[in-house]
């Protein structure tokens, strides 16, 4: 390891654009009025605070299709509060008669095709993390956590749930919303006088997106860098005990036809607790958690040589998840919560639970500049599967520097319970630990972002180069976008509670793109991208090389078209079957160079029928490939969404390798009978793993954030429909605020 070289890169990246770290906000602020009497939630806006013409926040600026003019469909918002709640009124004006688009009545809608108004509260004024609440014209709610400054769509986490209330009314020339958010739902400093805030609206009729505080259109609309101040009439005080108890009862029965075993209907109980420690820290506790209601992962056809990443969906792991998950980068994550309590069933390819006994997590702000996260989880021993119980501990500390940057420290420890011959509680030789430090760069104007980190793992035996280093910087303005990344992952870097699909390589990845903004009714923006990615190590030299030339066109209708020419070189350091079907493998030590054309099209998502399709054509190792991946959807108002995932790969290779026709079909029917009753059926046929999976889930939200679930799952051999595994789960939970 050449640490001085890594240190030189670290110093270079830290000192890049410190000049961009301070800007004065001279834009008008919002004001929150103190109320002596609470608001009656009915969506009518007839209380005195709302009928008063003073104090409304107006002048929404267009974000799309342009960002240089006032929005055609204007919006006005007013904010008030009392000792227990924050109140919001919003009036969304129309430019004429129209119909509204809501893809579903299910909570947590997402997509730029939905009409909606969103409220973003950065309660610690760091312009990095925020709470988001949204409502559509039919009163459907969504809540989310925003992390990492909203730099990517993935930074908006809609899986987070909490209690708050909203009512919407559709009027002749506008629609309006009334919102109550309990302060116990939020985290903030006691005595705070102001927050950062922004509001943005999606108008499906015109395809217009607008925001109260202007956001340049080359950044995501969820970006927190451009928020303004919300000034409270008096300092905030947290008087509530802020304790939530979420117990559940469940029953499960299952049958494994392959092993000839059956589980009779087995009752179980457990629950979670959320306890506010002061106004800014939260203690999450879980006992015997059950995640059976979490939707199944959407399968993919895996033609890669490495493991595929699936995101976390379990509620317990979500609040302040970025504090743990933002360390590292996609190819080298020091902590991946799905390593806890999740295994893969080799017969079905589905992720299945391994029992978690209990868990605790303390996370949040200590001061305006310091965040802390501490987690401990214990899993059970499964003697039948030969699995020893494990204890997982994670410590994450983050300190804000400059305006929006931060430095973080992470420690991850996995201990295994001892077997009988040991006297200690934990096996002294079966531990895995990681210690790492990250620097995250984000300039005040959001033009410069980046990351530098160094992580190291520790195990009982001697290891060679157990480290991971990465340096990345991105510059974005209206037209130019360029980035540079250098990564070095050591030969025996082994974070067993993380996600590292490959090791023993160095990676260089520069890219550059340019955008044109024509004066056109059809095209919104277009431009080329050039990207290079190279992998090598000291033993083998170059092992992978990609050179990609692409061109993207985005239309004012929200549809997109992208073309890419890809030139790839791959050296196989292990035997590899290109079809992953058990055929004759290509030998280790051989290398291949091939070229491909990729085409991707996304149709207008506001239409009743929509399509996302990707085609790949060209050479593939010693043969060729034609691959089509698509997602087709039909929307029947907001009652039904019917979609079909389709993935077909036609691979032709000379003997002795296998030819393959890989098919993955996934029809999905999503019915929302009311805002509280939902039924989803998801079928996945995958001939690569020889499995047909059926998952159907009925959800009844009988009280706020309280649900009854009925979940049926079945797996078959697709050739003769012989069953593999079958299960039925009933679960009832209730959210109780104390």
From TrEMBL:
Residues 1-20 form the signal peptide. SUPFAM superfamilies: CBD9-like. It comes from the Bacteria. Residues 243-712 form the DUF5916 domain. The keyword Signal applies. InterPro entries: Carb-bd_dom_fam9, DUF5916. Keywords: Signal. Residues 42-211 form the Carbohydrate-binding domain. This is Hydrolase. It comes from Algoriphagus taiwanensis.
